[in-house]
Amino acid sequence: MNKEYKVGSYLTLKKKHPCGSFQWKVIRVGADIKIECCGCKRVVLLPRVELNKRIKKVEEVENEREEKA
Q: What is the pTM of this model?
């Protein structure tokens, strides 16, 4: 399954981070995806295939929501 996300999107992952947060923000997109924990601000670099398996929900970028309204 292919998930659609961009820089600035918020992801909810299936398992929580040790700090207790499920929310992550996409910082960089490419073959590897760089994400930042919204709880403790830890930055993690994951391969796209592995991240796609871990994603539960994708939330749109805030700027796009305002432009569509």
A: 0.80
Task: Write the CA distances from 26 to 7, 8, 43, 69, integer angstroms.
Answer: 5, 5, 10, 23
Q: Are 58 and 24 in contact (CB under 8 A)?
A: no
Structure tokens at 15: 């398992």
DSSP codes joined into one string, 9-31: -EEEESS--TTS--EEEEEE-SS
| Non-local CB neighbours of 52 within 8 Å, separated by 6+ positions | 1, 2, 3
| pLDDT tens digits for range 7-61 | 999 999 999 999 999 999 999 999 999 999 999 999 999 999 999 999 999 987 7
